Automatic annotation (TrEMBL):
Pfam families found in the cross-reference section: ACT, Homoserine_dh, NAD_binding_3
Pathway: Amino-acid biosynthesis; L-threonine biosynthesis; L-threonine from L-aspartate: step 3/5; Amino-acid biosynthesis; L-methionine biosynthesis via de novo pathway; L-homoserine from L-aspartate: step 3/3
Protein name: Homoserine dehydrogenase
Database matches in PROSITE patterns: ACT (PS51671), HOMOSER_DHGENASE (PS01042)
ACT domain location: 352-431
Lineage: Bacteria, Bacillati, Actinomycetota, Actinomycetes, Micrococcales
Cofactor: a metal cation
Keyword rRNA processing in record: no
Organism for this UniProt entry: Brevibacterium picturae
InterPro entries reported for this sequence: ACT-like_dom_sf (IPR045865), ACT_dom (IPR002912), Asp/hSer_DH_NAD-bd (IPR005106), HDH (IPR016204), HDH_cat (IPR001342), HDH_CS (IPR019811), NAD(P)-bd_dom_sf (IPR036291)
Amino acid sequence: MQALKVAMLGCGVVGTEVAARIQNRNEALAERIGAPLELSAIVVRDTSKRRPGIDPSLLTTDAETAIAGADIVIELMGGIEPAKTLIRSALDHGSSVVTANKALLAANYGELMSAADTAGVRLEHEAAVAGAIPIIRPVGDSLAGDRIDRIMGIVNGTTNYILDQMDSEGWGFDEALRTAQELGFAEADPTADVGGHDAAAKAAILASLAFHAPVTIDDVHVEGIAGITPDMVATARDQGFVIKLLAVCERVSDSSAGAGLSARVYPALLGRSHPLATVRGAFNAVFIEAEAAGSLMFYGQGAGGEPTASAVLGDIVSVARRKVLGGRGQYERPFHKDSTILPISAITTRYHITLDVVDRPGVLAAVSEVFSDEGASIELMRQTVGETDDQGTQHAKLVLATHSNTDAILRGTVERLGGLSVVRAVKSVIRVEGQAQ
């Protein structure tokens, strides 16, 4: 069969790896597809820049011409614009698109998927979430006949490495981050990772796909890990927990605001027996709860040139096979645009609270009174004697685990606790995930 022309937008680390694999493994790919692939153009900003392994004759700055002559367009530029405009142009030309652009999809998922459906082509994006881990196709295809109720995942390798080192080696946040940067797990500016924004973009994509609703990154509640301290990690370990930055997407039927969807990212406690608690280093994992399939977990490398290139190549093979067979896109169901995205305040959760208190009679009664007034309840309370301060006052560490309640009520409880005269400081507040609520 005639070769399928492939145009690539962007040629960074991942793009270079993808181009090399298309050229070096063409025969094997052709056998799997049913037709050879021809890399017809690579769109870059500067064609004079030396790119080892890349044929200079393929380089161009003319994106529109490259797109117009392609059967498949690979977008690896990143960012919102001009990537969005070029993807829309490719779809309008009848080209299927493969992208790893999580920021773009997190902001425009519904619009771009609808555009692909209208054009009768595919917009594949396996590499946009969790690197080499196959999660988009299992959620979109393998579980298409099931009902997904909840997705909980570790989808950022940088933060998982940092928290893992803090737990296993006793490092502080700054030391763990610095080592992650030295090893190439973290960027020079790690804000998107440690602030939870990278994970939030992936949560928006997963929620949109799993619940068939246009969830954007603006709908995702985000908290990062910069406030996690060695003391918080040690306290969690003593209680049988590990701290992980989790992306949680779920259907909620009984919140204080009614039924709807929730997408959120925050550091949370996981019991050490939970499958996600064992995910170490810079690895990622996604845990799915479905009505018929039950619990499923997908695990693997979440970042890096080679793992991401693997996901991109898988998408290329998928869309190329569809081209050969003459099939259309698979996005036949409309998005539920009236889906309610619930605020974090309405979500039922549990808190793990650590207080620095004055060690004297009446402390526990004062704390219990606040919980009673706010309509919250204590599941577990543990007090350990601390040091004596410079004024000769003995203080203690009081660890409280709450029963389930709305986030708004528990947050109000913490604010009240911080105002008590017997509370020297609220040392930490962290949610608990992974157990029945």
